[in-house]
Write a structure and sequence with these properties.
Blueprint lengths: L1 H62 L5 H24 L8 H17 L2 H29 L5 H23 L8 H21 L1
Family: Belongs to the COQ7 family.
Catalytic activity: a 5-methoxy-2-methyl-3-(all-trans-polyprenyl)benzene-1,4-diol + AH2 + O2 = a 3-demethylubiquinol + A + H2O
Organism: Priapulus caudatus
Length: about 210
């Protein structure tokens, strides 16, 4: 009888264990989705800040000794800070860096140097176009993190907000330094924006 009672109790407990396993799949699913989201955010932001760092490096290589040099250098110093932060966030979040890091490095420098060779105004137009896309991108990420769990992502949200404000400050600096006087300003900035949007899309995935 004791054995029968024990068997009955074990059988009655079995559905409860199955229910617990079923219920636990929901948090696990949320965790998988959140993990993928954070991996994507850290990867694309790291790639973007690397490209931005290289853009300003290219501009400095051409215009560093001109009157515009100090303006570019100040923005570049902030980009170095941004890049260093995301370099530290990669291992912290166990995020995979973009497989195209060498390409972002070369493409960023080429864009910075190429526009700078067209003159100060073109370099600033490049800054305006790039920073507008980055600012919009950071705003999208902020909305995504807020919708998921503001408390859980508090530190990352603070970082992204700070960097977004820096990038929008760079945009204003570009406008204050005659960006709109660049030859074919609208065409130049639209082409750069299209390239930046494409780069963001690729870096999120590769």
């Amino acid at each position: 009888m004791p054995m029968a009672r024990q068997s009955m109790l074990l059988w009655m407990a079995r559905p409860a264990r199955q229910t617990c396993r079923t219920m636990s799949t929901t948090p696990a699913g949320v965790d998988v989705r959140r993990r993928a989201m954070l991996d994507r955010i850290i990867r694309v932001d790291h790639a973007g800040e690397l490209a931005a760092d290289r853009i300003y490096a290219g501009q400095m290589a051409v215009l560093g000794k001109t009157a515009t040099g100090p303006v570019i250098k100040e923005m570049w110093e902030q980009e170095k800070k941004h890049l260093a932060k995301f370099e530290s966030l990669l291992p912290q979040y166990r995020a995979r860096p973009s497989a195209l890091i060498p390409f972002w490095n070369i493409a960023g420098f080429a864009l910075g140097a190429g526009t700078a060779l067209l003159g100060k105004q073109a370099a600033m137009a490049c800054t305006v176009a790039v920073e507008e896309i980055i600012g919009d991108h950071y705003n999208s990420q902020i909305r995504e993190l807020l919708e998921d769990n503001p408390e859980l992502h508090k530190e990352l949200l603070e970082t992204i907000r700070e960097f977004r404000d820096d990038e929008l400050g760079h945009l204003e600096t570009g406008m204050q330094n005659e960006a709109e006087q660049a030859p074919f300003y609208k065409t130049l900035t639209e082409v750069i924006k299209i390239g930046c949007r494409g780069a963001v899309w690729v870096a999120e995935r590769v």
